[in-house]
Design a protein that fits this description.
Strand order of the largest sheet: 3-4-2-1-5-6-7-13
Strand content: 25-35%
Oligomer: single chain
Radius of gyration: 19 Å
Structural class: alpha/beta
Distance between the termini: 22 Å
Number of strands: 13
CATH class of the largest domain: Alpha Beta
Largest sheet: 8 strands, mixed
CATH superfamily of the largest domain: NAD(P)-binding Rossmann-like Domain
């Protein structure tokens, strides 16, 4: 049985992970950590708010982190310091931070999976977008999330853009010089080493959970690849997949598509 700790256990995603762990006969919930609800019990597990102390006391095999962009980088350093494998669903990490985490993971020999999205449909959407990038001269991404999401653009949209750029280094062929009369109206431009140039537009609106549309254009045609998340349960099969994979392996992995 795999001993699992859930960080951010009171949050919308964290509470869903808690229930998934409790319902899985191969997983055992041994610690729940959150800055809210300290002292409350989840299936006889007392919620704690001191991350490192709780980890040292309970010694989980793997932790699943769905917390906040403001704390995730420091949380990961604590996991690595204590040689605890981690599945990271919190987004907002910069490319530089991800590179540093990869280096730290190798130095401590402690596996970690960072996944901007755990939905199998969303992973396929990103894969399809990467494949289509070879054949289209222009592309933009529109991502939609609930209005309580703190980071923009989403980790999924950034990961999608990274995958697309591997197959096409310029998505603005033929565009005329532009002037924004309202700053930000064209979204944010994602590039790597001055390559790619993909506009990403972030919508924050009550009613959404998470959706993304990748729009490709070429002379005489438009291709749209769209994925909608209807509820948070769709992420749980990916979370369990990541836990089981990391229990048997000890690697740094960025993106769930790498273990499908």
């Amino acid at each position: 049985m795999i001993k699992v700790g859930v960080i951010g256990a009171k949050g919308k995603m964290g509470s869903q992970v808690v229930q998934t762990v409790l319902n899985d006969p191969n997983l055992e919930l041994i610690c729940a950590i959150d800055k809210f609800g300290c002292g409350e019990k989840i299936n006889n597990i007392v919620i704690q708010n001191d991350l490192e102390k709780a980890l040292q006391e309970t010694k989980p095999d793997i932790v699943v982190d769905f917390t906040q962009p403001s704390v995730i980088f420091e949380n990961i350093k604590i996991y690595q310091k204590n040689n605890i494998k981690s599945v990271i669903g919190t987004t907002g990490l910069s490319n530089e931070q991800i590179q540093e985490i990869e280096k730290l993971s190798k130095e401590t020999n402690t596996g970690i999976i960072i996944a901007p999205n755990f939905s199998i449909g969303a992973i396929l959407m990103m894969e399809f977008a990467a494949r289509a990038s070879k054949y289209f001269s222009n592309a933009e991404i529109i991502e939609y999330h609930h209005n309580q999401k703190k980071d923009a653009p989403s980790g999924t949209s950034i990961k999608t853009a990274q995958m697309m750029i591997k197959n096409n280094d310029n998505f603005k062929l033929g565009n005329c010089p532009e002037t924004e009369t309202i700053k930000g109206s064209r979204g944010g431009e994602y590039s790597e080493n001055n390559k790619g140039n993909i506009q990403i537009h972030s919508v924050r609106m009550p009613g959404f959970i998470a959706s993304q549309q990748v729009i490709f254009g070429a002379d005489g045609q438009i291709l749209k690849i769209h994925h909608d998340t209807i509820n948070r349960e769709c992420y749980m099969s990916g979370v369990v997949l990541a836990i089981n994979y990391l229990h048997k392996n000890n690697e740094f992995i960025y993106g769930l598509e790498n273990i499908l």
